[in-house]
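Worked Example 4.2. Consider the chain below.
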Amino acid sequence: MSASRHVLEIASNSVASALAAQQGGANRIELFDNLAEGGTTPSYASIAVARERLRIPLFVLIRPRPGDFHYDTLEAELMLRDIQNCRQLGCDGVVIGALDAHGEIDIPLCQQLVSAAGPLGITFHRAFDAARDLPAALEQVIALGCERVLSSGGQASAEAGSAMLAQLVAQAGQRLSVMAGAGITPGNIANIATVTGCHELHASAKSVRASGMRYRNANLRGLENDWTQTDADTVAALRAALNGSIR
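Applying the procedure from the previous section yields the following structure tokens:
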């Protein structure tokens, strides 16, 4: 496979991260907030400014809270409203997912989310990895009309789940793209792409940004900490690893 056929999506926890990802050579952005808690839907302003300043496709995570992927009616309403906002702001796609209490894909809710998205592209997020039966869940995600599923093969990292990812890629065929994500670095991205057959790879490329505060109140631990942000050089290294190692 030619390296040019590989899509590098960068998980961006802020507009600054998204712009750094674009600078580094990302093909697509997944925008979200609260990286440390697995990601939640970013603010309206973050989505709007990202859309204004990005030249590459923008997908937005639709997730109302941290924790599990089993949502009640209020949370469903929030997700539907957020999808409506994404459509109005001109986003390219949304990233959705929901499970029932038994670890199955929540088909009724996901159908509502897909319907609300209309013409937007749809990625099914890593709620998929929390499902009881990944091959069965894959068929359900395909039936929903999603264009891709983000997965680590049900493991803590894509590298650990590479065998399952390869199985899912073979099962999906041309019906859906299986995008490998979790723990992807410049050092392993090429091997993961080769072993799994995934032509889309998802990474955060994050680094720690040091706070510029010279004064810190020691009684307010956690309020003036450093933070993480996508690093353009790391994105470029991911891109280079794909370009240089995959034929």
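The two ends are 5 Å apart (CA to CA). The chain has one domain: 3-207+225-245. Compare this with Example 4.1 before moving on.
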